């Protein structure tokens, strides 16, 4: 198979501005990713096992479609599961495992934009 | 340095500050990530490394099987209420939708120094990051006569879903009414803690309908049912009265394929018509062969923040192969959860971003007590920085109060969505 070997940006300790410019130009959209963005997406991905990647549900799979909820609707629901106000099978048990801040993050990542 | 800066700025500053090649971050679009094993752990890692790197890191998945066959739900095929087609998914969406390069092959060895893996077909692939998710290996040599009995087709384990799954169903179908099915369970930890007890339910469900004079014998090396004990006990008593016998502290030491006899460490021999003997388990071969299985030579110890093997830099191990944290089951759902934490950490490390210091894992496990009624166990595992491990959150998680068909619907919903989350 063809191999593209690892190429460090800085090859010999000499780092020219020209090379930096080229390197930055060639950097794809990962440049938009920050650590917090990655952490938030990773946290929200804990919902995907049951509710679909990025809250896109498998059609007619029998699971509640959380992708249609706005951020606020989702957070209200999650907090209700956590407090016990909302009954359910698994969700009351899972919601209690997250901090309020984590549930807020999940709702902002997955809530309908 | 503000780690929240765009990665481009991070790259630049890291370069200027460090000024030497050794600490230079990898240009993530040139980074080669190789994933060994396309199960719940490996397939999910391949997809999510692509997703989390915004489709920049180059990911190669090496998997010998043509299709993904799910272990969860496979007990229903053994019990005859579902088909192999219903638990089988293709791999090609990983390449079509996510740009993962698929190689149908086995990895023979890992060269940690050169950072390469050698395939059975002979070629060599270079990696910057390696994900190892080989599942379990059944330690057949721990039970005298077991390997021979398996080769003779007498005892089938069916603990890796595939040809043995349907073969075990065929053995049950060929058995006379009034026959005996015996399953033996090794000492924990093993893949899928509720799996053997669910299988007993599925076999009993099949017998109840088709061969009502038959028996299910469970011989457990453990002191009690390892998972969902109360729920299984109740299901056996109410759904299958007089059909299932549970025997704790029965440790199998030998099998005689000719006479279909099971030999125990302490108790008298038992004969059965269908023998489903599960031996002790350990991490998949490639993990043990490459010397990273440093927990009793059986499991791989990892740093739970990034799932990097403690014995090898840039090798991240997922799923059933790892030495688990307290109350962390060896399950498909857990492997999928490991994969997402590892994927985010790998992308962060390749991009010189700070690795998440507070990852979260969940587990959900549904067990069918007959063809439609289901019970679950669920848990949430938060990283504990002081103890450097995952811990379940007090007051969270738990069990179903009783089996329901509603949870049967959710169980299939879970299956269809986790298959898509891992593979599509």
Any chance you could write out the topology, listing elements then pairs?
The complex is a heterodimer of chains A (113) and B (424).
Chain A: H1 17-26, H2 35-44, H3 48-51, H4 71-83, H5 91-95, H6 100-110
Helix pairs in contact in A: 2-6, 4-6
Chain B: H1 7-18, E1 32-36, H2 40-52, E2 58-62, E3 67-69, H3 74-78, E4 88-90, H4 92-98, E5 101-103, E6 107-111, E7 116-119, E8 124-126, E9 129-132, E10 136-138, H5 146-151, H6 163-174, E11 180-185, H7 195-210, E12 215-220, H8 229-239, E13 244-247, E14 252-256, E15 261-264, E16 270-271, E17 274-277, E18 281-283, H9 285-289, E19 302-303, E20 308-309, E21 315-317, H10 332-350, E22 360-368, E23 374-384, E24 389-392, E25 398-399, H11 405-423
Parallel strand pairs in B: 1-2, 1-9, 2-5, 9-21, 11-12, 11-17, 12-13
Antiparallel strand pairs in B: 3-4, 6-7, 7-8, 10-18, 14-15, 15-16, 19-20, 22-23, 23-24, 23-25
Helix pairs in contact in B: 2-10, 2-11, 7-8
């Amino acid at each position: 198979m063809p191999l593209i070997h690892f190429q460090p940006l800085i090859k010999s300790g000499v780092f020219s501005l020209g090379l930096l410019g080229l390197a930055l130009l060639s950097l794809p959209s990962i440049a938009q990713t920050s650590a917090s963005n990655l952490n938030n997406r990773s946290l929200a991905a804990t919902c995907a096992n049951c509710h679909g990647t990025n809250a896109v549900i498998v059609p007619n799979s029998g699971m509640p479609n959380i992708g249609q909820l706005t951020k606020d609707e989702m957070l209200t629901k999650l907090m209700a599961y956590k407090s016990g106000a909302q009954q359910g099978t698994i969700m009351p048990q899972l919601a209690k495992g997250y901090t309020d801040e984590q549930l807020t993050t999940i709702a902002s990542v997955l809530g309908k934009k | 340095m503000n780690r929240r800066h765009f990665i481009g700025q991070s790259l630049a500053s890291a370069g200027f500050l460090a000024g030497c090649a050794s600490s230079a971050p990898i240009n993530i679009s040139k980074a080669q990530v190789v994933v060994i094993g396309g199960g719940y752990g490996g397939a999910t890692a391949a997809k999510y490394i692509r997703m989390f790197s915004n489709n920049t890191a180059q990911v190669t998945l090496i998997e010998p099987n043509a299709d993904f066959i799910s272990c969860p739900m496979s007990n229903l095929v053994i019990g005859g209420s579902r088909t192999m087609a219903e638990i089988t998914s293709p791999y090609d969406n990983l390449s079509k939708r996510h740009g993962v390069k698929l190689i149908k092959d086995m990895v023979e060895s890992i060269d940690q120094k050169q950072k390469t893996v050698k395939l059975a077909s002979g070629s060599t692939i270079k990696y910057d990051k390696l994900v190892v998710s080989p599942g379990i290996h059944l330690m057949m040599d721990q039970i005298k006569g077991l390997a021979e009995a398996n080769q003779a087709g007498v005892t089938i384990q069916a603990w890796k879903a595939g040809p043995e799954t349907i073969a075990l169903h065929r053995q049950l179908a060929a058995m006379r009414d009034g026959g005996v099915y015996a399953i033996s369970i090794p000492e924990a930890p093993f893949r899928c803690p509720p799996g053997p007890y669910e299988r007993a339910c599925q076999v009993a469900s099949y017998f109840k309908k088709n061969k009502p004079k038959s028996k299910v014998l469970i011989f457990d090396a453990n002191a009690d049912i390892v998972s969902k004990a109360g729920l299984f006990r109740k299901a056996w008593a109410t759904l299958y009265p007089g059909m299932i016998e549970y025997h704790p502290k029965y440790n199998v030491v030998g099998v005689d394929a000719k006479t279909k006899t099971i030999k125990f460490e302490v108790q008298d021999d038992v004969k059965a018509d269908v023998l489903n003997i599960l031996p002790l388990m350990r991490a998949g071969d490639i993990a043990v062969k490459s010397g990273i299985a440093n927990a009793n030579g059986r499991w791989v110890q990892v740093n739970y923040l990034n799932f990097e093997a403690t014995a090898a830099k840039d090798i991240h191990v997922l799923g059933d192969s790892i030495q688990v944290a307290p109350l962390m089951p060896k399950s498909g759902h857990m492997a999928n959860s490991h994969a997402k934490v590892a994927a985010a950490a790998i992308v962060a490390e390749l991009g010189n971003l700070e690795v998440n210091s507070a990852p979260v894992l969940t587990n959900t496990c549904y067990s069918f007590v007959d063809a439609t009624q289901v019970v679950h166990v669920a848990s949430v595992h938060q990283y504990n920085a002081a103890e450097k491990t995952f811990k379940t959150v007090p007051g969270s998680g738990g069990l179903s109060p009783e089996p329901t068909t509603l949870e049967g619907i959710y169980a299939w919903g879970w299956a269809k969505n986790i298959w898509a989350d891992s593979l599509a």
